[in-house]
Design a protein that fits this description.
The complex is a heterodimer of chains A (460) and B (552). Chain A is an alpha/beta fold. Chain A has helices spanning 60-63, 112-119, 147-155, 194-202, 209-234, 239-258, 287-303, 334-339, 345-370, 428-438, and strands spanning 48-54, 66-70, 73-75, 90-97, 131-132, 138-139, 164-168, 181-183, 186-187, 309-314, 373-374, 377-378, 383-389, 404-407, 418-427. In chain A, the strands form five sheets. In chain A, strands 7-10-1-13-14-4-15 form a seven-stranded mixed beta sheet, sandwiched between helices. A two-stranded antiparallel ribbon of chain A has the order 2-3. Chain A has a two-stranded antiparallel sheet with strand order 5-6. Chain A starts with 47 loop residues before the first strand and ends in a 22-residue tail after the last helix. Classes of the chains: A alpha/beta (460), B mainly alpha (552).
């Protein structure tokens, strides 16, 4: 049998725009089915969270707003200029520090990059381990759940996929290349291929319904046996081995749970994507196209209510990607450019361009969501996008005054159009608490509470 | 050897310092103590890596489609992709296992059905009986041990259910396909489950069963599942006997699969798999190196792999040969790059080199070009590589704000420029640990080619080793390689790298006896690489484990 997936009401036909040159044709959409799905508490439409990660720090002078007269009267800096059209939707947050990631190495393993990346969504000391860092430092995975997964635990229970982890040219498989964690030591790898991700999200929905129904029945039978196998074995194993099987079993159970709910009935804003001719997703020059497709996929997954939480990793910590598509003059890796001293104005200018390009991608993501109707407005109205970086400065690994931009209000939970400076020495774990609260999750602490408790004041 | 005072020695070297500087007497004492107790160290649950999954599927099904290439990448720690503690199964990987299992079942279930006459004929009642033998045999190979009666009946029931979920009223193909899918997603296939023998022999230490040893042997020496001979030896319960283990290890080392596994080790230890992506990402300067083209990095990697393979398996090389051999392997295209004659085809052949210039893998172009800049050599990176990869030491981190390196200057050698550059007292402390080693490679340019001069200026390749057990001055890479080849610290480093690769984990203090045994065996065999690999199969860490402490 084929189960329809329930989905928020959508109001009018629409075409997704701004999809770049990737030959994406989103078919015109037709009208709506009645609202079916349980809503996030107190709102008509479900809230959604996207976290976008970029590495290697920013250029502070070109990032923070200028001509600041008040929190709502300021000019966007060169890096954030591509977001001008959405200025009223932004919250630019200054004076927040990765306090948890600046603790002494005796209590907090890892080198600067390992910590910046592993702490950015967890605010928890990394586990000890054998991932090689600079200078004889080393670390294991992050030591706690990441904020996107904490949100997913609350808002992802009704959707076939609790969360979606996508990447663009993320290289490596260590603590420098992961931001999302289900729990301490349990990273969720990003999928770099939009083609694979599309098959994963929509594959069950494309094809002969009778065949799909048969396959679903076979999967149930097989996975029942497989799950029993894991359950029986886990009890015979010791601590860490048992944890490994438990985590594996959790993955199997996630598949089983959505077997009957992951077939999408395309209508309204929820439509299949045409991904165009496949391109090499590992080629750095293809990053703009691949990133565009990944953002199309997030948009489609939200429109079809396949998930409500997504992370999008643009490359990885210490990424050596030569981003010459941003500017043909760029001939060195991003990490190398970020390490140049402040006096090297040519390289600093290149780094500004790189960060501005990432800001333009955030703008493209907003545009996609805004062009996806939902209720009386758009999916963007109920979404918050948080742009995080592993650090502030690339050339001294400064993890204070980390550059943060939030776009969207998560259904009115945030009061946007403002630049707030928290003055420093404020732990970023308080921002993570604010993210939880804005997403309707009741929480007063997140990560290591010794670096701050309670949400940031004044965001709503 | 003097006390090592390097600020940031790795834990490994710090822990093994006594071993590294052990003299014969001390080694014997330690071996004596070791034989009194059995300490296998931890035995964390190991899941198949992508390489192991692909190899296992090939051997199980004759399928070379390498399905694991589509999995999320294996997590890497300490340079290796097989470290048990970091290899996790995310929901994404669990889905990948599902998809691979379905595709493999679709591809191969029809063949299995055709091999069971009653099933091929659609004779339902007889097929349901005959299929049990298939489940028993396929299951034994998939799980690398005989199935229990409970497992047998579970899979039989799944087969019967499956026959109703395919095409038509009775589909043996669907039934067999579903049994395969369940087995290929089972923890008994995807992980190496080890309980050991029921009765402890020393405290909570148990021997591994012969089936478990068969898998340990095959995944260590072949990176794949056991072959028939190993299964038969396990069936006869021979593999708790060290002589039989050694017999099997020696047999296995003489097969092509062992060569692949040894290649896999060196690719990861020396960082050979960085050569292509890192060099291709940044390229080489077209004006300074017009001879460079994007095909070279692959040739370079293949050269070093072929050299080590040839030396270890054709020449029974000892460690010193790897470091000092005056020959390499090249094909016609690479010979053109080297500017030598000899090979005429695409196959790699042995070519003799000038022993006053070249020394084993140490002077091969891939690693030298990798540890170089796009427009010149890099003494810093080459020195750091020697410290890190060959001596297992970690130099202190670079300062956060690295000054811009000087532009290429045709009136000065690279050495002259960098000597000035790092004369800054702030930099000098750390650079003293790297540059004097890296200067020894100055006869090799940014493409790793030998040169007599740079910009017409004489090359100074004198260097110095400090904070090692072979401290002292040397001139050029050949002398450096000789010093490294005689270093106890290098030998210890090689042993610990093989330990990590072979056992899927880092060594711990309580592994001291296993390490000591390995060191002793390696020394006794005059540092023959294959003998070290055999020794890896005979330690406490290999043959025993602490009993599993389950909940139940």
């Amino acid at each position: 049998m084929v189960f329809n997936i329930r989905r928020p009401a959508l109001s009018r036909r629409h075409l997704l725009r701004g999809l770049g040159g990737a030959a994406i044709g989103l078919p015109l959409l037709d009208a709506m089915r009645s609202p079916g799905r349980a809503r996030a508490a107190g709102t008509d439409c479900p809230k959604r969270l996207i976290i976008m990660y970029t590495p290697n720090g920013t250029i502070a002078d070109s990032f923070w707003p200028s001509a600041v007269n008040s929190e709502s009267d300021f000019e966007l800096s060169p890096i954030l200029a591509p977001l001008e059209a959405y200025k009223q939707d932004l919250l630019i947050l200054g004076g927040l520090d990765y306090l948890s990631a600046t603790a002494p190495v005796e209590t907090s393993p890892g080198d600067a990059h390992q910590r910046g990346t592993g702490h950015c969504l967890t605010a928890t000391a990394l586990l000890p381990g054998n991932f090689t860092g600079d200078g004889g430092l080393s670390a294991g995975w992050a030591g706690g759940i990441s904020v996107d997964q904490e949100v997913a635990k609350a808002v992802g229970l009704d959707t076939p996929f609790r969360s979606l982890e996508l990447g663009v040219a993320v290289q490596g498989a260590s603590v420098r290349s992961r931001i999302a964690y289900r729990a301490a030591g349990q990273p969720l790898p990003p999928e770099n291929s939009p083609y694979t991700a599309y098959a994963r999200l929509f594959g069950d929905s494309l094809g002969d319904p009778n065949e799909i129904a048969k396959r679903t029945a076979r999967r149930h039978a097989v996975l029942d046996v497989v799950a029993d196998d894991y359950s029986a074995l886990r009890g015979q194993l010791g601590g860490e081995d048992r944890d490994k099987l438990d985590n594996h079993l959790a993955g199997i159970n996630a598949i089983r749970q959505r077997l009957d709910s992951s077939v999408v009935s395309f209508d309204g804003s929820c439509q299949p994507l045409e991904l165009g001719a496949p391109i090499d997703v590992n080629h750095v020059d293809n990053m703009p196209l691949v990133g565009g497709l990944q953002m199309d996929l997030i948009t489609a997954a939200f429109a079809c209510d396949l998930t409500r939480v997504a992370t999008l990793m643009w490359t990885n910590s210490t990424a050596g990607h030569v981003l010459s598509f941003v500017d043909p003059e760029i001939k060195e890796g991003h990490h190398t450019i970020a390490h140049k001293g402040d006096e090297d104005t040519a390289k600093v200018a290149q780094n500004v361009k790189i960060n501005a390009w990432y800001a333009s991608q955030m703008a493209g993501l907003i545009e996609r969501l805004e062009n996806t109707p939902e209720g009386e407005g758009s999916v963007f109205d109920n979404t918050m996008i948080v742009w995080v970086n592993e650090q502030n400065r690339g050339n001294n690994h400064d993890r204070r005054d980390v550059p943060y931009v939030i776009a969207g209000s998560a259904g009115g939970a945030l009061n946007t159009g403002r630049y707030l400076d928290f003055g420093g020495d404020v732990g970023h774990n308080r921002l993570l608490v604010s993210i939880l609260n804005a997403m309707g999750v009741d929480a007063d602490t997140f990560g290591d509470p010794q670096f701050g408790t309670g949400p940031l004041s004044g965001l709503s | 050897m003097s006390k090592l005072d390097l600020r940031a020695l790795t834990l490994t070297i710090a822990a093994l310092e006594c071993v590294a500087c052990a003299n014969e007497t001390k080694l014997e004492d330690e071996l004596g103590e070791c034989s009194a107790t059995i300490e296998p160290g931890p035995s964390p649950l190991r899941r198949l890596t992508q390489v192991e999954y692909n190899n296992t599927i090939f051997q199980l099904l004759g399928d070379s489609s390498a399905p694991a290439d589509a999995f999320p990448p294996d997590e890497e720690a300490g340079g290796f992709d097989n470290q048990a503690n970091v290899l996790v199964v995310s929901p994404l990987l669990a889905e990948s296992y599902l998809e691979a299992a379905e595709e493999l079942a679709d591809a191969h279930a029809p063949t299995f059905v055709s091999e069971i006459p009653t099933c091929a004929a659609g004779d339902e009642s007889n097929c349901n009986v005959d299929v049990v033998e298939f489940i028993r045999e396929f299951g034994k190979r998939a799980f690398r041990r005989p199935l229990s009666e409970t497992e047998l009946s579970t899979f039989e029931a799944l087969f019967l259910e499956g026959t109703g979920l395919g095409e038509g009223p009775y589909s043996a193909e669907a039934g067999i396909g579903m049994v395969m899918q369940a087995m290929l997603q089972s923890p008994h296939f995807l992980y190496r489950i080890e309980f050991g023998m029921p009765a402890p022999i020393d405290g909570d230490v148990v021997e591994l069963s012969s089936w478990e040893v068969a898998s340990r042997l095959s995944y260590l020496l072949w990176n794949t599942m056991p072959d028939d001979a190993l299964f038969e030896a396990a069936e006869r319960d021979e593999l708790r006997d060290p002589e039989q283990i050694e017999f099997q290890a020696r047999r296995m080392l003489e097969t092509p699969r062992a060569r692949e596994a040894v290649k896999n080790f060196h690719r990861q230890w020396l960082g050979l798999d960085d050569i292509e992506p890192r060099i291709l990402a940044n390229g080489k300067d077209e004006e300074i190196y017009p001879e460079y083209y994007d095909g070279l990095p692959t040739l370079w990697r293949l050269e070093t792999e072929a050299f080590i393979d040839y030396a270890v398996f054709e020449e029974n090389a000892d460690l010193a040969t790897l470091f000092a051999a005056p020959y390499t392997m090249m094909n016609a295209e690479l010979a053109a790059f080297y500017g030598v004659s000899g090979p005429s085809g695409v196959e790699f052949e042995r070519v003799e080199l000038d022993p006053t210039r070249y020394a084993g893998f140490v002077t091969q172009p891939g690693l030298l070009a990798l540890n170089a800049k796009p427009d010149r050599s890099s003494p810093i990176h080459r020195g750091k590589w020697v410290r890190q990869y060959l001596l297992c030491q970690d130099p202190p981190p670079p300062p956060d704000n690295v000054p811009e390196p000087p532009e290429v200057d045709e009136s000065q050698t690279t050495r002259e420029q960098f000597s000035q550059h790092s004369a800054d007292p702030v930099c000098a402390g750390c650079h003293q640990l790297m540059d004097p080693i890296g200067f020894g490679f100055e006869h090799f340019d940014g493409l790793g080619r030998y040169r007599e001069t740079e910009w017409g200026l004489a090359i100074d390749a004198s260097g110095e080793l400090t904070a090692t057990d072979v401290d002292g001055e040397f001139n050029g890479a050949v002398e450096l390689a000789d010093k490294l080849a005689s270093s106890e610290q290098v030998k210890s480093c090689v042993v610990s790298q093989w330990f990590r690769f072979g056992y899927g984990r880092f060594e711990e203090q309580r592994d001291e006896c296993s390490i000591t045994e390995l060191e002793a065996a390696f020394a006794a065999a005059d540092y023959d690489i294959k003998e070290l690999i055999v020794a890896l199969t005979l330690t406490d860490a290999f043959r025993y484990r602490h009993a599993m402490e389950g909940e139940n």
